[in-house]
Design brief:
alpha+beta, 3 strands, rod-shaped
């Protein structure tokens, strides 16, 4: 090995380590956003189902108030709630890294869904 090639392996190892760390640094926010998206979808589904239970008369209360309560319990905000007879459509959202993440869900009896 000549003197001009000494330390080349160390430089290569440092470059590879930097590339791996850069990939990890990019993957962490992406994975966090996907996790939050799943949570918001679950919050929308749960809020719509609970509000539909109220609209049908299974549970007492006001459909949109129940939907807002469930959205808050799932660390999201109820943005919109529409009640059309026994069909309820909700939109919930939250933020991650300053970006909004939202989901919409509709629930009601199977024979009543349009």
């Amino acid at each position: 090995m000549s003197d001009s090639q000494r330390g080349a392996g160390s430089i290569l190892a440092i470059g590879l380590l930097a590339a791996i760390l850069a990939c990890i640094a990019l993957a962490i926010p992406l994975c966090s956003a996907l996790i939050v998206r799943s949570r918001v979808v679950g919050a929308a589904d749960a809020s719509a189902l609970a509000a539909a239970d109220v609209a049908v008369g299974i549970v007492p209360g006001i459909p949109c108030a129940v939907a807002a309560s469930l959205a808050t319990a799932n660390r999201a905000r109820l943005q919109e709630c529409q009640v059309d007879g026994v069909i309820v459509t909700v939109r919930v959202s939250t933020e991650i890294f300053g970006f909004p993440v939202a989901a919409t869900a509709t629930a009601g009896p199977a024979d009543a869904v349009h």
